[in-house]
Amino acid sequence: MGKHSLSVILITKNEADRVVACLQSVATIADEIIVLDSGSTDETVTICQEYTDNVSITDWPGFGKQKQRALDKATCDWVLSIDADEALDADMQQALVALLDQDVIEPTAYKLPWGVTLYGKTLKYGRSARSVLRLFKREGSRYTLDEVHETVIPVEGSIGSLSGLLLHYTHRDYGHGLDKSSQYAWLGAQKYHRKGKRSHGLGLALLRAIWTFFHIYILRRGFMDGSVGFIMAMTYAQVNFNKYVGLWLLEKGRS
């Protein structure tokens, strides 16, 4: 391996149809792969055990707490946090190998450009045209303990960007996309309610949805991704609307 060691952390549940591509993309780079599974009923655990002997079966405390549990098990210099529906493309694999073989790595964390891939298309615009912080020095880093949309807080220092793409196969099909969207909207509503954020009414929920669509489809040029770009802009708008409706209902005690 390189001059710097790498832990890969992964949380799973019923990902047998997608986790192989994920694990294959990191198997030759990682010094250790840590998997926390929250009760899969398919072959996910068996598949993961083919790549690592560090597989734990746990309860489900929420995304942030579960990823912190995985981070707590890591022992290497650097940590790559990857989801079961993601995989490093060949360019990113090479970039990561080269990075870990450097004598000194100045940044304390790296953002990975996302390659959201769904309905047969890898999106280049809209909200998909962003990078996510997934590679970081282990010592001193931690996760926020949010139910959803958790973030890692790396040790203080500069943040770099890795070349290549972190491919993200976000939906198995449209029905799966709808299920995920509704789940994230409700979890987001609960998170905001717990943190004391206010909805300011249903009218503002509608305006937020309209703004989300405009921001993603027009300002971030989601229209350049064709019909799939339109679908994604509408999906994000719907999620934002549902999240604030959920928050409004929680405020009224009608959830």
From TrEMBL:
Top-level taxon in the UniProt lineage: Bacteria
Coiled-coil positions: none
GO terms assigned for molecular function: transferase activity
Protein name stated in the entry: Glycosyl transferase
Alphabetical keyword list: Membrane, Transferase, Transmembrane, Transmembrane helix
CDD domains reported for this sequence: Beta4Glucosyltransferase (cd02511)
PANTHER family reported in the protein's UniProt record: GLYCOSYLTRANSFERASE, POLY-BETA-1,6-N-ACETYL-D-GLUCOSAMINE SYNTHASE
Membrane among keywords: yes
Family membership: Belongs to the glycosyltransferase 2 family. WaaE/KdtX subfamily.
Keyword set includes Transmembrane: yes
Regions that span the bilayer: 201-218, 230-250
Residue intervals of the Glycosyltransferase 2-like domain: 7-140
